[in-house]
Amino acid sequence: MEVDMTGADYVKFLKRLAKVKKPLKVVCDASDGSAGPFLKKLRFKKISLKVLNVRPNGNFPAHGPDPSDEKASRELSSAVRKSKADFGAIFDGDGDRVFFVDENGKRVPPDAVAFLVSKNFKPPYVATTISGYLFRRSSVGTKIKLSQVGHYFIKKEMRRFKAKFAAEISGHYYFEQAFGKRKAYYDTALRALVEFANAVSQLKNKKLTVSEWLKIISPPHASGELNFKVKNQERALARIKAAYKGEKISSFDGITVDAKDFWLNVRPSHTEPLLRLNLESRDKKVFSRELKRIKKLIRPHTYRRTGF
């Protein structure tokens, strides 16, 4: 079998997935990474696509290759506003992660992206323990199968539950693809771009912009992932578990506290002496209270504090 080294076959595959009803204007930032050559070849009938930093360069002269760093998306946000685009997308260096901004250049929470894109697929969906209100506890929450963080675990659960879509707040989006009787499960930022465009086109058909839609679904107050360098992960987790004894607690992938007006997850890194915290609440006062509380619980076990 002859292997296509130009990427033309994959570009054709992505084009077939596009189901855009209302014309869109989109700006993408390839971050001088591997997604650039593919984005340059992508042409859609109803999508006007502008690509920044398209040429791969391992020195990443435009900005760092990590799209989760909001500083990296400054150029993209400016271009989206200037072009009056419907949304923007920024890719990481190797093209497997993507983050989105709305028509005002403001970051769209990954959970909101997952919630919106999931509507393109039949349930169940796979999410991680650190997925928040908009995906795990939203209207699709009852159709969610939980997985540990990491592509190995997520793909395993997708195969187990025959899920067609999965997501992580790190900007990874996973899809099922059939090849005859065989099925593959893979994470790809380029397909996530196409699926997000499909979903935004549906919003536009309802005369909604991305920012207007976000106001309707009312995103909660969220900490993002905060890292704490700790001396002893097990002792810190035990202290947290004891402090929240009266709440609903799960020990699956760290400690998850699922309370009435907030949820939090603290999980150990498997490669570094870190605890990673994610906290959300729809109430600002509750969010501030619990953030102070959890920091106080972790602090005695830290070498030094990072990420806050």
Verbal overview:
By secondary structure, the chain is of the alpha+beta class. It has helices at 8-17, 36-41, 74-83, 110-118, 151-161, 189-205, 210-217, 233-243, 284-298, and strands at residues 24-29, 47-52, 87-91, 98-101, 107-108, 125-128, 144-147, 165-167, 173-179, 182-187, 221-222, 226-230, 248-250, 255-258, 263-268, 274-281, 302-305. Strands 11, 12, 13, 14, 15, 16 and 17 form a seven-stranded antiparallel β-sheet that branches. The protein has a five-stranded mixed β-sheet with strand order 2-1-3-4-5, sandwiched between helices. The chain is globular, with a radius of gyration of 20 Å.
Tags for this model:
26% strand; 308 residues; alpha+beta; 5-stranded mixed beta sheet
The strand count comes to: 17
Helical segment count:
9
The H/E string reads HEHEHEEEHEEHEEEHHEEHEEEEHE
Low-confidence spans? none
Q: Helix proportion of residues, in percent? A: 25-40%
Strand content: 25-35%
Radius of gyration: 20 Å
Largest sheet composition: 7 strands, antiparallel
| Helix-strand category | alpha+beta
**Average pLDDT score:** 89
Question: First CA to last CA: what distance?
Answer: 52 Å
Instruction: Sum up the overall morphology in one term.
Output: globular
How is this structure best summarized?
With about 300 residues, this protein is an alpha+beta fold.
Topology readout:
Elements: H1 8-17, E1 24-29, H2 36-41, E2 47-52, H3 74-83, E3 87-91, E4 98-101, E5 107-108, H4 110-118, E6 125-128, E7 144-147, H5 151-161, E8 165-167, E9 173-179, E10 182-187, H6 189-205, H7 210-217, E11 221-222, E12 226-230, H8 233-243, E13 248-250, E14 255-258, E15 263-268, E16 274-281, H9 284-298, E17 302-305
Parallel strand pairs: 1-2, 1-3, 6-7, 6-8
Antiparallel strand pairs: 3-4, 4-5, 8-9, 9-10, 11-16, 12-16, 12-17, 13-14, 14-15, 15-16
